[in-house]
Specification:
With 386 residues, the protein is α/β, with parallel strands linked by helices. The chain folds into 2 domains: 243 residues, Alkaline Phosphatase, subunit A; 130 residues, no CATH class. The chain is built from 14 helices and 12 strands. The strands form 2 sheets. A 7-stranded mixed sheet has the order 8-9-1-10-11-2-12, sandwiched between helices. Strands 3, 4, 5, 6 and 7 form a 5-stranded antiparallel sheet that branches. A hairpin with a 2-residue loop joins strand 5 and strand 6. The radius of gyration is 20 Å and the shape is globular.
Length: 386
Amino acid sequence: MQYIILVADGMADLPIPELGNKTPLEAADTPHMDFMAQHGVCGLVQTVPEGVAPGSDVANMSILGYDPRKYYTGRGPIEAASLGITLPDDKIAFRCNFVTINNNKMVDFTADHISTEAADQLLKKLQPHLTEIQFYTGVSYRHISFLDPKYLNVSCTPPHDITGKQVDSFLPKGNFSEELISLMNRSAALLANTELNPTQATQIWLWSQGGKPTFPLFYDEFHLTGGIITAVGLLKGLGRLIGFETPDVKGATGFIDTNYQGKVDAAFDLLKTKDFVFLHVEAPDEAGHMGDTALKIRAISDFDHHIVGPILDYQKTHPDLCILILPDHPTPISIKTHTGDPVPFVMTGPDYNKKIQVAFSEKLCYNSDVFMKSGRDLLNSFFNRC
């Protein structure tokens, strides 16, 4: 048997009055996920453990079978691994966003989805002036920085959690936090020079720091070889840390304009040699953080048509392929950030030829009697069911 998990990041949501109290998933055009729901097994899974802050880092770690309470040290060091960077013992890694802050308000946590090339140029211009920090270029607005371990316990807020809000109450807090705030403010002063900076980025934002993580290999845990397809450094880093192949897909952006066909082709290539493929699409989550209902509906429809559809077609000629589809966490339009609520899933089931007229949705799965207490429980059920 072979296995593929298709993750639409942040796809789950709440009913929206403007949609007639439908969720974006219910409002989207999803014939292929509906087909899965009509022929497979639907239910809910708790991807974010109780007491853990909801995020794509911990949720996807859980889906891959790793308990975040045991293995998670921070988002920064995982993303550093995605860049092939070795984190020295005397440093910790921060996630470093380029953001747009106007009149003290977080206008855009992506700096208008700044291009990787433009971001790289800005980091090179900032580096000589901010010598206590070491920058590494990631993708678009997502970058990595190394700093002194004294900042490990500073409380930092993800910028995507404060879209449209005044930033003062969300600045770093705790011992040495003033130094981090000073770094961010100094970056803002430098980027205010329009000759230096022709982009929408107004400053860097530091968050989710941590030391070097250690994971058991996925093969040692599940006796399956694997690969991960994603545009997001966090997921690519996680894949590398657990021994997955992590191909680069040209044109994969982590947004609505990503190269869907390239991702599907990369999945087919991996399935030639691997037992397990994890394919991740970021766009629904980005739309959720932006509070853009129409964009989220489009992102979910695109995921269904450009990812789920081709994978189902492939399964017709490869009947030993088992498919699991889910979001990692909800990103409700109404609050523009993640929640830790259970998420809906659908997977190949033993009664795959049954026919019931349903559509894949949060409501359908909440009414199911199938509930998985953790991502590892879901993963084990997925492997055992096929």
